[in-house]
Amino acid sequence: MAANRDIFRMENLAPGVHLISEAERTHTYLVEGADWALLIDTGLGIGNIREAAERITRLPIIVVNTHAHWEHIGGNHWFETIA
Questions:
Q1: How high is the pLDDT of residue 56?
Q2: What is the per-residue burial (b if ≥16 Cβ within 10 Å, else e) of 7-26?
Q3: Whole-angstrom distance, CA of residue 10 vs CA of residue 5
Q4: pTM
Q5: What is the pLDDT of residues 10-21, one digit of tens each?
Q6: Residue 43: what pLDDT?
Q7: CA distance 17 to 11
Q8: Which residue pairs from 76-80 have beta carbons closer than 8 angstroms and sit at least 24 positions apart in sequence?
Q9: Which of 9, 26, 56, 68 is packed most tightly, with the most Cβ within 10 A?
Q10: Segment 13-48, tens digit of pLDDT
């Protein structure tokens, strides 16, 4: 999956708070709690953002979309739990 790794750039912003940039176009945030991780938006969907997020955390991931524009929900299909 080298191609998928090239699509995403990840940065640790603070303990438990991570920035995931997809294709240098969209930005999502992964926030780790005690039992769950929250992924805010899922980007464009051109790469497997779930795989990228799972490289950061072992916690189960819940997705929250800020709104329904295509560049915010494109990767929703990789997840089961979406709000």
A1: 97
A2: bbeeeeeeeeebebbbeeeb
A3: 10
A4: 0.91
A5: 999 999 999 999
A6: 97
A7: 9
A8: 76/42, 76/45, 77/45, 78/42, 78/48, 78/49, 78/50, 78/51, 79/39, 79/42, 79/50
A9: 26
A10: 999 999 999 998 899 999 999 999 999 999 999 999
